[in-house]
Every structure is written in structure tokens, then in C-alpha cells.
Amino acid sequence: MAHRPGVDAARMGFAPCPSVRSVRPEPAASRSKPMSRRAESCKVYASEALSSHAEIRANLSNLDKVTILSEALPYLQKFRGKTIVVKYGGAAMKDPTLKAGVISDIVLLSCVGIRVVLVHGGGPEINKWLEKVGIKPEFKNGLRVTDAATMEVVEMVLGGAVNKSLVSLIQQAGGSAVGFSGKDGSMLRARQMVEKDIGFVGEVTKVEPSILKYAVESGYVPVVATIATDEKGQALNINADTAAGEIAAALQAEKLVLMTDVPGVLRDKNDVGTKFASLNIRECRELVQQGIIAGGMIPKVECCIRCLAQGVRATHIIDGRAKHSILMELLTDEGVGTMIVG
User: Fold this and answer.
1) How are the residues of the chain apportioned to helix, strand and coil, as percentages rounded to the nearest 5?
2) Measured between alpha carbons, how far apart are the two ends of the chain, in Å?
């Protein structure tokens, strides 16, 4: 697979690392100093995430392992202290194995000093609870119709069960997380999309990022449920892609990553081999005009374009069904999805 233009280590301005011929022993004082519980947990979990399968490890030589770390190093250096917003949804939220992989990626990035903000949806879980209380889920043009009773369930499930479950998983994996709804600290303000006649569904009009900045600067992974309020305090359901994009723009994030159930932007939707490794805004608009970017991919690409126009440096559309797709996309030369830049 060809490297993406402009993302190799040399072009990022990093000199090649000198060969390491021997490992220097730690000073005795350093070795005897106890490691904090969180640091120890992070170290163990990060190690497991980087080489999670015994059969893969068995087939890797020491040189292979060092080469993998060497390739990741420039990216770790570049992104340390930077903010990356990840929109989490789709199959990766339903499958326990995939969920564990996503959580391990998030914890690893946090442990090496990358500030991750996790924005999540929860469609399948919402549908399950609606059925439990006897409400039939209804959609119009792909958007959930959200009446007052449905909105009550949406807020309970997204801001409660789903959000706190993700916070718990991150902390069990050795990270530190804190859960928010977009209502907290007036983080997400929105207006109701009355013209679409779909009830209490909104579009974001303002993001107040202060509480998120405080959380990431304090070493936490903020986990955000996409519930907003309007000027009268009415709760509104917000599309998770849109919310993640607006949050990324407000934070002036280094990257926005949208996890989906497709490999990225494809020239032929039935052929994974036609995936675009990278695109710019002009190319995206041309592909929309040509009908190559179509259907549900259009709002995702438009979300990426809006982010880029507001200062986010790069956006990525990746397949959440692929194991460790976040790490593969961010820390390797080739990536696994489609990177969209200005």
C-alpha cells in the first residue's frame, strides 16, 4: 500500500532515530522507586494493546517489533499534548471484542500524552430501551423521530447507561475518564430542526469547550453524550458525527476521527481495494458531484469539511470493525481509512 503524501516521518520534520545497540539499565534509584497504580496500569495495558495476539507476537522478530515502534515514534512525538476527537459508534459499540479494542486504543493514546475526547452515539441501545417501554422506533430520511417520550429515553440511555458504561470501561483499562452530557456546563447549545418535522432533534449552534479543556488538561478522557439544550432549556438529540465535528472545531483539535462501518471513502462501494487513502476538500466536492461520494457518506464528509474550514488540521474516516483501527490510522505511515485534509 502506498504511503500517504505528506505523512511520513521525514516530512514531519523528525530526524531518523539512532540505532539502539544495547539497553541501558535504569539507575538503581529509579528502579526501586514505586510506580503509581495508574502509571503501572497504563504501562501494562498499552503494552497489551500494541501486541494483543500471542500468535502475532510469536511470528515477529525483535527487529520487527522495534521497527513497528520506530514507525510509531514520530507520530507519538507529533501528537503528544495535542487533542484528538474520536466519534465512537456503529458496530464497534455493539461487539464486545471490538469495544475492548477501541477502549484499549483510547487508553494507550491517553497514556502516551495524547488528549483524547470520546464522543459517542448509542442508536442500538436506544432502540432496545424504547422497545422495553413499548415505544416503536421511527425514522425519517435516516434521522430518528424524537417525540417527548422518546427524548426522555434517549437522554436516559445516552447520558446514563451508555456514557457511564464507557467511562467505567476506560477506567477498568487503566485510564482516567469523566462522563458528560452536552447539557453539562452548557457545552452544546442547539436549535430544534423544526423544518424537518422530526421532533426534538437539533443542530449545534454553539459549543462551550471550557469543561472539556479542563478535563483533558487534568489528564482525563472526556466521554461526551450528544444531548444539547436550546435557549429555553429543552433537551435535543444531536447527530453524533455532527456533535463530534463541532466539538473538534471548538477545541481546535489536531484531528477528528469518525468511526464508521465502512473502510473509508471508496470509489466503488463494493470494492474495498478502491479506498482513497487521502483526499482534500476540492477532491471531496468533485467526488460528491460525480456521485462517488453518496448516501450516508455525504454528511460524514461534509462534517469533515466543516471541521477543516474551522481550523482542525486533519480528519479521518475509519472502519470501527477493524481491530485497533484508531492506532493503525494515527500511528502508521499508510493508515487504514481515508484521511481528509484542507
Assistant:
1) 45, 20, 35
2) 23
| Identity of the amino acid at 287 | L
Residue 178: strand, helix, or coil = strand
Give yes or no for a contact between 204 and 246, defined as CB atoms under 8 angstroms apart. yes
The letter for the amino acid at 125 is E
Cβ atoms 199, 151 nearer than 8 A: yes
Q: What's the burial of 55, exposed, middle or buried (CB within 10 Å: 0-12/13-18/19+)? A: exposed
| Residue 260: all three cell numbers together | 464508521
Query: Which ranges of the chain would DSSP assign to H, the alpha helix?
Result: 28-32, 37-50, 54-58, 62-79, 91-94, 96-111, 123-132, 148-156, 163-172, 210-217, 240-251, 281-289, 297-309, 325-331
Half-sphere exposure of 181 (CA within 13 A, CB side): 17
* Rounded distance between C-alpha atoms, residue 107 and residue 98, angstroms: 14
CA distance 148 to 224: 22
Helix 37-50 × helix 96-111 angle, to 10°:
120
What type of residue sits at position 88? Y
DSSP 33: S
State residue 126 phi and psi, 5-degree precision. Answer: -60, -45
pTM of the model: 0.81
- In degrees and rounded to multiples of 5, residue 184 shows phi and psi of -65, 130
Q: What gap in Å lies between CA 335 and CA 342, rounded to an integer?
A: 18
φ/ψ of 118, rounded to 5, equals -105, 120
Q: Are 204 and 227 in contact (CB under 8 A)?
A: no
Identity at 65, one-letter amino acid code: K
Are residues 339 and 284 in contact, defined by beta-carbon separation less than 8 angstroms?
no
pLDDT mean for each 10 residues of the chain (342 residues): 44 33 29 42 48 56 77 90 94 84 93 96 86 87 84 92 94 95 95 86 95 96 96 93 96 96 91 93 94 91 95 95 90 91 90
How far apart, in whole angstroms, are the C-alpha atoms of residue 304 and residue 159? 25
